[in-house]
Amino acid sequence: MTDLVCVQTDDFDLAGEYRRLRDISSRVGAVVTFCGLVRDFESSASDIDPDAPINNLTLQHYPGMTEALLADIIAQAKTRWTLYGVTVIHRIGTLAPNDQIVFVGVATEHRKQAFDAAQFLMDYLKTQATFWKKVTADGKEQWLDTKGSDNDAVAEWGKSRDD
Amino acid sequence: MVNLAFGKQTTQGLPGVIDLLFFGRLGDLAGEVDRSVSCIESRATPLAIREWLALDHQSLAKELCEPQVLVSVNKMIVKWDQPLFDGDEVAFLPPVTGG
Per CATH, which fold does B2-93 belong to? Predict the structure, then answer.
């Protein structure tokens, strides 16, 4: 298996994930990895003071559907670029500031494909995969809304396909 | 388990159980994430369930009417008028916020 999709409560090891992608094939000339972390502030939650420190973030997902959607997003990326291997790991449950939430890694022949594919995967993951985030800060809880800029990012990929 | 009848019961209507899932803020408004309903109407659809939920969950029903809320049946996004069958899993999906 050159692709790996995991939805898990456990943390992940960046070095180990990089090594897996690097070792997939001797044709691999570029590995791009992205790691998303929990911030200690949240400016998009209307009920929460943007300066209030975040206590924690709770990640919920739809088991079965999430994994299928992530596999579909990877399949879409593979229609655009030649990818030797892809890893998507997303954590669920309760996370604290500075915790790792999400990992996307891509192994390709050349750097541009790897950068572009990693960005494509993250843009689609953020807007299509069935995860929901609840932030706890300042004694309050709030489910977050999708950011308009995330939808714009996916719309841009749609345009670039039409070119 | 509640009995879910959409108006008049039809003779061809087969009894069935439908599993409802509410994610994100919808779970808070529904008071639970997972709920089974017994359905005795052959023309059950997500839309009919939404209308039925409005009877005693007004704030939930209002949120379900938001255009960004999607509905899936057996983990596939569908239209709100998709016919439902015994054993179907219906999930109400607010805008996603992963990553």
Answer: Ubiquitin-like (UB roll) (3.10.20)
pTM, 2 dp = 0.90
DSSP string, A84-131: SEEEEEEE-EEE-TT-EEEEEEEEESSHHHHHHHHHHHHHHHHHHS-E
Domain spans of chain B, in order of start: 2-93
CA distance B34 to B92: 11
Size of interface A-B (CB pairs under 8 A): 64
Tokens at A125, concatenated: 């993951």
Considering CB atoms only, which of B21, B27, B98 is closest to A126?
B98
Q: What is the pLDDT of residues B68-79, one digit of tens each?
A: 999 999 999 999
Q: How far apart are CA B99 and CA B92, in angstroms?
A: 20
